[in-house]
What does this fold into?
Amino acid sequence: MKKYITSNIIGKLYQNTEFSDWWESEEIKIPLLNNEMLKVTFLDVEPEHDETFIEEADEALTNFLRMNIENRNSLSELAYNNCIDFLDSVEFDEADEPLREIKDKNEIWNFIYPDGIHVSRRTYNDKDIYISIVCECEWEQEHGLQLVFRQGKKLTRISDQDGHLTEADAYAKPDSQDKLLNEFNIEYKCY
It folds into this structure.
């Protein structure tokens, strides 16, 4: 019989057959992504060793699932800038021309393809719950794109999928030097 854990927000998550500390839900509607249906995966979770994970994940998912298309559009400039920064750092490719011709930054979402939602606990500093939208995208085919939300409330990182939840962790710098994470800390007074 398959092992599972239960979230009060998204229901049963079944243990992944390859990674015993990954737990996967059925597909659910993600309002932030115009109700696209995606699986939610709890990563690096051993329920017997992290007894508060599911409760904290449910709280973060509640926050995250309140966000809608207007919230997504408020992130368009950051997503667009991620695209242009990448294109400016690589050799010119004619195939990228449609990306360079974007007039309305909300159009960037036409070039982003969400694959799933990952929920995990940061292993450094705040040990908080972060929700990542993992995506493929037209400009970074090798490493894709991730949008990371601390406590499911606010975007605190947009980057390629490098396995890090914060810029601070990715570049071994203090949280205070991580612009988006620091904005969250100021807004929500999490020190």
